Amino acid sequence: MSNKNFLFKQFVIRQEKSAMKVGIDGVMLGAWADVANASNILDIGAGTGLIAIMLAQRNLTANIDAVEIEWQSYREAVENANNCKWKDRINVIHEKFQTFVEATQERYDLIVSNPPYFTGALQSPEMQRTVARHTLLLNQDDLINGIDKILTDTGRFAAIFPYAEANVFIAKASMQKFFCNKKTNIKPTPQKPVKRIMLEISRVKQNFMENIICIETGSKRCDYTSEYKNLTKDFYIKF
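Structure (tokenized):
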């Protein structure tokens, strides 16, 4: 399998031209987001289509829309969706999220996003990668306002952010009367600080749940923890 393709247990992701390749963030979110009782799912910033396909594998009845603005990523997301066994339930849309929100009549039980998150970092000289990684075209306010318009009353939004951006997002979402009900702190190893946070918000306040996942044990490179393996074992071939 060449590095142009990433092989999972039940599907293959082609990533030759997409700005953002398959990474730990996307795989963790796709495995972590709660898909229970979700009939309509939306993936914001679909990239290669990885998360949309993972959610289709985990929920065998939901219809999934995936919105992607960057052209090359959109084309590969379409190809990847069409080549997977759940293709009849995945619809990839080439559109800016803000435009999509204004045009759609759909309401979603679950919305997921591995959003652009670098708000102050040096931008990549490659525009395609800059669009994928920075908040130039989708900032947190637009993201929250869009979610507010198209999420069902009992629906959930799940995302993964760097540590600082996650806490800013939670604070901004609370101003729109969203509650953070679930939070998973992600550490590269037990000895290192939290680098990422997966969070779930909704309009319905529930008992708050928080935990920590360490990706590697820290004893040697690629020695993965049992909790990381358990989360992703339905997807990674090596687990």
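The first strand starts at residue 5 and ends at 7. Residues 154 and 204 are 6 Å apart (CA to CA).
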